[in-house]
Amino acid sequence: MLIAHVTDPHIGLRTNLMKAHPGPDEAFRRALAHLRQLQPLADVLLLSGDLSENGHTQDYEALARVIGEELSELTERGLLVLAIPGNHDNPDMAKSVLGDLMPVAADAPVGRVCIHVERGGLHFIGLDTVHLGFAHGLLEEAQLHWLEVQLKACAGQPVVIFMHHPPLVSGIAIMDACGLIQGAPQLRKLVAEHGQVQLIAAGHLHRPVVGALGGAPVVVAPSSSHQLDLNLEPGAPLACRMEPPMVGIYRWTPQDGIACHFSHVNPFAGPYPI
Ligand SMILES: [Fe+2]
């Protein structure tokens, strides 16, 4: 099982600060084109939020169009694409346009994009950490209860959780201030009790970051577009840095467990046999 992870495309973002940048829309297209070159191809693609910059309908339509244009061959061969919203998104708008990518569970808390799909023996559970109108994220009681029910229903079976706001403290102060400010301790308890969570995949930080929660690895993938400057000084200002975009490529088998790779979207010379 190969899981591709593309996050924070911020479709629709327009800024002249990104002078040599192809723009978020084109950067997203290049990330998906990169997935087509993988051997073997991914079985699942997770999109972990900030799909749009401003939550506009046309942004989600553009995102769906690019997915259709770049990945139709892969989806015809069975690629499963799942998406959850981030703080820049309008979840209702996203759902109305991207319904196929957001198969909200029948028992999900009202208004929440909670997803539970099984593929290849792995349970993919998507959580919706959006607190509408705020940059920070949260998991409130209803969603934690829903998650508890899901995890009990697949006791002993492997699970991948994906969510926008990562349940970790990165040390990038300004991002931690707008991180997952509610629900992380309860999530840790549920993950530890289940004992078979293979991975928690997240976005929001626009950097590759690895942590752990309740015995499971937490992996934050970089943005397909622009990254945040790595500055761990308390009080450091938030700044972008045009480091090369990457996609997460996570290999999982029942025997070997999880191995998380990051693959550069931009071309590099090689491979040179040695
Ligand atoms: Fe973002």
Please, could you describe this protein's structure?
The protein is α/β, with parallel strands linked by helices and 274 residues long. It has one domain (2-264): Metallo-dependent phosphatases (Purple Acid Phosphatase, chain A, domain 2, 4-Layer Sandwich), CATH 3.60.21. Helix content is 26%, strand content 26%. The protein contains six helices and 15 strands. It has helices at residues 24-36, 57-76, 91-98, 141-153, 173-177, 184-194, and strands at 2-6, 44-48, 80-84, 115-119, 122-126, 137-138, 159-162, 180-182, 197-202, 209-213, 216-220, 227-228, 240-241, 246-253, 257-264. It has a six-stranded mixed β-sheet. A five-stranded mixed β-sheet has the order 3-2-1-14-15, covered by helices on one side. Helix 1 (24-36) runs parallel beside helix 2 (57-76), helix 2 (57-76) packs across helix 3 (91-98) and helix 4 (141-153) runs parallel beside helix 6. The longest helix has 20 residues, at 57-76. The chain is globular and about 50 Å long. The structure holds fe (ii) ion.
The N- and C-terminal alpha carbons lie at a distance of 28 Å
CATH class: Alpha Beta
Number of strands: 15
Structural classification:
alpha/beta
- Give the low-pLDDT segments: none
Total helical elements = 6
Q: SSE string, helix = H, strand = E?
A: EHEHEHEEEHEHEHEEEEEEE
Order of strands across the main sheet: 4-5-7-9-11-10
Which percent range describes the beta-strand content?
25-35%
- Nearest-angstrom radius of gyration? 17 Å
Quick one: overall form?
A: globular
